[in-house]
Amino acid sequence: MPRLSFGSWVEDAVDWLQSNLTFIFDFIKTVLGGMYDGVNAVLGGGEPLLMAGIFAVIAFWLRGVIPAVLTFAGFALIDSLALWGEAMATLSLVVVAAVITIVIAVPTGIWAARNNRVGAALRPVLDVMQTMPAFVYLIPGVMFFGVGVTPGVIATIVFAMPPGVRMTELGIRQVDSELVEAAEAFGTTPGHTLTRVQLPLALPTIMAGINQVIMLALSMVVIGGMAGAGGLGEKVYAAITQLQVGLAAESGIAVVILAMYLDRMTGALNERVSPLGRRAAAKAAAGARRLKFAHYKPGTAVAMTGVIVLALVAGGLNIAGSADSKATASDSTDVGKGQKINMGYIPWDEGIASTYLWKEILEQRGYETGITQLDAGPLYSGVARGDIDFQTDSWLPTTHKDYWDKYSDQLDDMGAWYGPTSLELTVPSYVKGIDSLEDLKGQGKKFDGKIIGIESSAGMMGTLNKKVLKEYGLDGEYKVVSSSTSSMLAELNASIKKKEPVVVTLWSPHWAYGKHDLKKLKDPKGAWGKGEEVHTVAHKGFAKKAPAVAAWLKDFKLTEKQLTSLENEIQNAGQGKEQDGVRAWLKKNPGLVDKLAPVPGGGSKQGKDAGKTVNLGYFPWDEAIASTYLWQNMLEDRGYSTTVKQLDPGPLYTGLAQGQLDVQFDSWLPTTHKDYWDRYKDNLSDLGSWYGPTSLELSVPSYVKGIDSLEDLKGQGKKFDGKIIGIESSAGMMGTLNKKVLKEYGLEGEYKVVSSSTSSMLAELNRSIKKKEPVVVTLWSPHWAYGKHDLKKLEDPKGAWGEGEQIHTVAKKDFAKDFPELTGWLKDFELSEAQLASLEVEIQKGGAGKEKESARRWMDANPDVVEKLTPVTG
């Protein structure tokens, strides 16, 4: 038979879908992610014991007193195991997946029951869905939706769908046909026959199907932990890959408690919603002679009241807790300002150590972090898609070569932080006569013909099988057992305890060499190749998203001594306490955080007047927005507190003169703001100009040929539709344009100056450029439009616009007395045209409402400028 390339066809189909239907996958991801976040906010947001009380009230309503007590005890146990958040995340995934599955499965089952052709067509589809290995569903989920919640939910829906459809179809088909015929004989419509006869009688079977849907959803959600779905699944997966028996037992108990609760509650729900179930429950309660209180179940209204009361209390405590947890003081090391950074790692020791090290560092610098453990394939896929920002355990150029080659166009190599490494086969020192790979030949029986390996996907396993064994003539005599890193270490540990011979795959650095007395087998033929480097790899665009973090990662380095000591500290802390191990290690290495993550602009240094509040004001001109938010960030880095208010020029100057505001950075003098300066100068302080000279001008796009000077506009009015697009009519430059410039160049009558607003002028400029239409607009320098568009400033040979102005910093009268240190900084404050233009462009990119964050990004990219503007001595 010829080779059927079914797998390659599937891969081609997947590639096509990824290339052409990304918008659909993104939409689905957004919807499912939003549903999960909403449910998780409700279930995981309250005080654990109060939420356990709510679950207990539901159990009391559905099953009685004893199940309610057991429910509370079970959920309290989950909380005591410190797994409440993970359990609620898992429950949220189950709820979302089960609800979607039921909404699809029940109508589909009804359709199949009422249409034999549909039922026949669905059966083989359901067979495939039900018998396909559950892990297979994760592969397309990760490829289409990346790592995280969505692939777990999608895989769960597909896996849990069949019983819901089958049981619904079975329940309706089992309804006595004579009852259906009787209903039809009395003139009942098909719809009423379904809702009033078939569904009520089939409800017990349908509810059994729903029960199975929920149970399968729970089992699949745990498997979804391999794709980064989080919750208990991630804990179970971590326990498996790291061979942590204690964690596996704790996580397993939590899963069992959830499974028992969901199973018992969905089973009992049938008694509440089904007429047959209610009749059976009433009969059982009437027949109970002893312990009648144990069979008591409150009415729906009573149970609902209890749930609402507990929910309100839980919500109130959560709100109060959130309010209490908000930081009120400005932290000079708060670089991240709460920005979320997602990290992923393979459960290799250096990956765990470096990831949790950066988790601690980033949190100390004000970032919010997320961590996901994944296998190498999903990890690289997640980083490439941008679901994960970076990972610190890329072994290049060999071990992870296949992944790098596949995703390199979507990744950024941030550089190596450790190396060179070495790959090796290792034996305990008590195994005599085995010191080199050459010594293994003919000794297969001693090691039971096995070499204990790690994950089959690891590059070193491919090198071992394809090169090392052949080079030393060991293929056929030895079989490489693929397992996991934790399983390999467990086998090594067990063999050493029994003093049995064993040969394992290992690498340097590794903490096992510190724990056990081992021999690295020499490789005289160099079959393992040269040592590798451990790299940090991020998604494309990460440096733009978090420039400070990207800069830190590019300079990240650890010595072998530092890395092995960090790994050992984490090993000593134990599973689940990796960050505690990192903190203990950092205490033994003071100053390392500042070295690995220096605060941009020297923000860790406090100013002499730190703690004082500076009230900043500005009016919405681009250079004012840029300079104000730049100084807000720098002042907070130096320990000052700040407030920022936007005002029109009149109220702004009045506020400064009255001392309600301290300083503003956009006084155009001596012309534009002359009236305000003349009126309030006795109550103001001029701290000097920080930019100039400015210029006012008319500008046209560069594609408008033959128009290079104001003189060239004469006689060309038709080309521009007789219009010059202006800004606010109150602006000083509009008066100069109308009263002087047009007259000086004989343009009045031929051109009409259209008063609008700065934003409207820029919108008209942008629209015209897109259509390649001629347009002439009022502009000034500096302005970010010159960086965004290719424009020509029209020359003014007659000097009609007048001389350029200076942009001054103006403060209240007693500013120097109140802020002596800041006064010195502001008097020396200067920005070049290139600096100001790049700052304005960064703020434009960030968008409205993100001015402070955008200025921070510019500061991260220009730390030398910030240090120069706010020097701290002593």
TrEMBL record:
Protein name: ABC transporter permease/substrate binding protein
Annotated InterPro entries: ABC_Gly_betaine_transp_sub-bd, MetI-like, MetI-like_sf
Domain of life: Bacteria
Family membership noted in the UniProt record: Belongs to the binding-protein-dependent transport system permease family.
Keyword presence, RNA-binding: no
SUPFAM superfamilies the UniProt entry points to: MetI-like (SSF161098), Periplasmic binding protein-like II (SSF53850)
Keywords for the protein's UniProt record, in alphabetical order: Cell membrane, Membrane, Transmembrane, Transmembrane helix, Transport
Domain annotation ABC transmembrane type-1: ranges: 87-266
Region forming the signal peptide: none
Topology in the lipid bilayer: Multi-pass membrane protein
Entry keyword Glycosyltransferase: no
Location relative to the cell: Cell membrane; Membrane
Membrane-spanning residues: 49-78, 90-114, 134-160, 213-233, 239-262, 299-320
